[in-house]
């Protein structure tokens, strides 16, 4: 019997799909971790883990004091 994916993976995959489809474009600012936690009804830690996964995939980039943004991948 298949198990449901971990909530952080669901969130990361949702944002990744929006980035790949063009719904979220390079340079777009993402909601804060606490806003994402509220949107998905999860803990801030779960939302942070999802954002970390997206950062590891090089889909987003953080700018201290400014927020988290969709990475510009046109250089690849």
UniProtKB/TrEMBL annotation:
Gene3D superfamilies, sorted: Winged helix-like DNA-binding domain superfamily/Winged helix DNA-binding domain
Protein's organism: Micromonospora endophytica
Keyword Metal-binding listed: no
Upper classification of the organism: Bacteria, Bacillati, Actinomycetota, Actinomycetes, Micromonosporales
GO molecular function, one term: DNA binding
InterPro entries given in the database record: Bact_HTH_transcr_reg (IPR050679), Tscrpt_reg_HTH_GntR (IPR000524), WH-like_DNA-bd_sf (IPR036388), WH_DNA-bd_sf (IPR036390)
One Pfam family this sequence matches: GntR
Name assigned to this protein: GntR family transcriptional regulator
UniProt xrefs under SUPFAM superfamilies: Winged helix' DNA-binding domain
Keywords: DNA-binding, Transcription, Transcription regulation
Biological process according to GO: negative regulation of DNA-templated transcription
PROSITE patterns named among the record's database cross-references: HTH_GNTR (PS50949)
